[in-house]
Queue: 4 jobs
Job 1
Amino acid sequence: MRKIFIILIAVFNSGCMDKAIEDSAPTHVPLDVMAVADAIPKYEKRTRAGNPGEYEVFGKHYKILAQSEGYKKKGVASWYGEKFHGRKTSNGEVYNMYAMTAAHKTLPIPTYVRVTNLKNKRAVVVRINDRGPFHDNRIIDLSYTAAVKLGIQQIGTGLVEVEALGFDSAKVIEKKISLLAEDLQKTVFFLQVGAFNHSANAADLQGKLTTAAIASTRVQHIKNEGNGLYKVQVGPLYSEQEAKQESEKLAQIGFTNPLLVVEKTP
């Protein structure tokens, strides 16, 4: 019984649980809430805080979902504001009504969800860090800012769709970075300084570049129905920094707008 009692205390410490206290919008808003950026889904290790296997509120039992993947549901959204600003949420964080957060009864904490107002089609992304709302017809309790951005703050509630968003695990992110690094190693750059219909003109320009101490050049012949096109390019260059340095050298000899060409090596 002691364990269950501790869990209930943790749940009821959440700001949005105590609906006996009348809530309200802030009398003074210190920022442009419409400019507040959405929450950005990212990997976060799930902790026990806010995630008891099951809990009970007002005589009703709730079971935390094992995962958020695939969650998508329509229902009524409400919001909570000034009376709970600064109180602790279910996972021990401090509720900030100007942050893009929300409360949910059963989604794991944290979970990132996209909330769409089905009336005006506005959508926001919020981070679940609290429990509630404990009303049968409501599926999510939004922060004051999220409610304003969705256009439901003045009315108090709105019909929405809540969809859980995925994020990469730490191992997946590490693998993506590794693959990106490998991919960058296979990338080379060229700076194109001219294109001609006749090979003699291209050879002449290539010679001028060599004379000007631009050592690495090539003439690329692109065949078409006619004689083709002869492109004079500086390179290969193996980084954007190297390409920038060569571009500065070209500018000194009159080639101020070379075309950057990106190629993949075999």
Note: The radius of gyration is 29 Å.
Job 2
Amino acid sequence: MVVNYCDYRFTRKENIIYTLQSICLIGMIGYLFYQSVLSILFLAPLVFIFRKKKKKECLKEQKWQLNLEFKDVILSLSAALNAGYSPEHALEEAYKDLKHLYKSDSLIMQELHYMIQQLHMNITIEKVLEDFGERTGIEDIISFAEVFATAKRTGGDLVHVIKVTSNTISDKIDIKREIITLISSKKLEANIMKVIPQGILFYLNLTSPGYLDPLYHNVFGVSVMSILLIIYLLAIKIMQKIMDIQV
């Protein structure tokens, strides 16, 4: 099956989980900020925004996983070319090598199987790699496909060019992995900061009943809480932008 990695589709399990998560989140916000059932209905559209956000996160994780797996492909492909295999047979050798690392239902193994099938249908390897890059939208894969096609078309030293390109892409992926590791603790801190405002409201409502009553069920209180909610959501968005480091 041909997969377009620029568009993520939830599985049935993910659909149920993320829908329930979004409903719980909207219910909690409606209770803590407004203590009104009507406010929960008013905030219902946030369910779609939450699901859209989760879809982007899942898409990003899928692309990152595919990028990591593709790193092993180009290293194996480079080794096969260096051993004297033609580009087409080198791709088949890479598939055989990666069978020891990945399961048959992994993203990269399914893609390699599909690419080999295309080669057997007399589609050029340049076109196969180009199609793969377009479907993934991953810069490293697109760049590799372009370099590969140029080197093969111009009759250059394909083995050397692919080796240099694969090393460059591998180094880039390793750097990104190190950055992700370094900021993982900061992401945890950011996640804790996201729940602190809600935690404070919950604590005050639980331990001091009536203390926050002036902020509920009146125009002034609703206005204040709405402004605070907007500031809270903007702060979350800013934190996410800061953590989203591109390499």
Note: The two ends are 30 Å apart (CA to CA).
Job 3
Amino acid sequence: MRVLATGASGFLGRAVVQALQHAGHDVRTLQRRPSNVDGAEDRLGSVTDPDAVASALDGVDGVVHLAAKVSLAGDPAQFRAVNVEGTRTLLDAATAAGVSRVVHVSSPSVAHAGHALAGVGAEPADPDAAHGEYARTKAEAELLALSRAGEGLALVAIRPHLVWGPGDTQLIARVVDRARRGRLPLLNGGTALIDSTYVDNAASGIVAALDRVDDVSGRAYVLTNGEPRPVGDLLAGICRASGVAPPRFSVPAGLARAAGGLVERVWAVRPGEDEPPMTRFLAEQLSTAHWFDQTEIRRDLRWTPSVSIDEGLRRLARA
């Protein structure tokens, strides 16, 4: 197929484009800066621009929608413009262009209200209960996308969880930087059991979803390695693979949540140049269990991850 991938300049986006190419698809991309993926046809623009979106969709058979505003803090209007209205613009244009297949890349945070998620599947997205502007707008966008499934458009929502790997300038880079500066605490000792996803597995799962979308249209799935580990162990593995000392001090989760709320209020008035050091959402992610049953996604997409966490850490160390 000819496939349009939005947000292809991001860490996961580039991996998805390469996986699509490896599967034999002809890939066009749409994002604000070059994807830098050999062989991909780049179109520069934003999903918030109807003309750019319509042009990029010309002659396209399927879409993988990854473009999003991803941040722990920021202007609520910007989150809404990209995550909700950008998704609406893309879906409207895809319908008009006769696109038959869409994979909407979402996030498990759309169904995380702050309590533990242990061995669950893809519970319904809930914008009212989700914490933080990113999670709220991604929840709304997922519901919007799934409402379009049917009547000639096959659409599935895939929620990769904590994607990481070599070259990641978000999760990995921030973990390593904060650990190096001694500013990476464990919450409640780092004992919360969490899932994560090596980037190659996230990409291959998304490509599998595009291949199988006709059979799973209207569904949402959480995608992970299926190897839950205590958050402290995962952070320690990432730090050691990156040549820095693992975090060694712990703070109570309640204190971190309170501090995160205070930081959010300060950031709303005087935002810093980088991500805030703590938010309520981040404190919840680091202190509550969130791991997911992978039975349905592996069965329905006929997909299994190919890179274990241990192998991923070895690749990270070699990078």
Note: Residues 111 and 123 are 6 Å apart (CA to CA).
Job 4
Amino acid sequence: MQVVDFHVHTKYSKDSNIEPKELIKKARKLGYTALGITDHNEVRGALYTKKINRYKELLILVGQEIKTEKGELIVFGTSENLSNKNFFELLDYVRDNNLFLVIPHPFDWIRASALSRHLSYEEIRKCAEKVDAIECINSRALFDWFNNKARDFARAIGKPCVAGSDSHLLEEFGAVKTYVDAEHSEEDIYEAVRNGLCRIEGKRNLFLVHFKSFLIRLTK
């Protein structure tokens, strides 16, 4: 059984100050076996974290959270920066190259980057046919309703749920876990999730983390 957080930022995101070395240390202490590093429009944080990770028991999943004109998508499985693609180009590219695609915080309408700010429910449903998983717990959601809506949506369209802390600060990390019934390899984890062999648990973090990450963005 693998224990995964599918949505973590590092200092390579403009609003995060997480040092990859400290993240690895905390992940091992909390029993994680895989981390999805998903910096904003940036893959260098994931590649660097993977490079410095010396522990076989901890996998670094190379990802990126891409902001498009329709909202954000999380992509795993490539070292290529995909931030130059629009929403529909990205969906097609992921399918054509057998990458792993997650919709993060789809119904958190407070965020400008949520798909529900740009697409109708039916449009999201149609696009979600091309994705592998829905983020059903995001620890930065201000209200439980946002996560509950994502979970209900995933069930309605038959897509598996994953959980992401969306950590921008080290203190946030550890709020969620996705348990995946898979071997200890990146591809096995993705395939197991596609087949629904996973379950999630977690909680929301306090609003204060948003204020802190806003200050980080200002200082950078």
Note: Helices lie at 20-29, 44-52, 87-96, 121-128, 144-157, 186-194, 208-219.
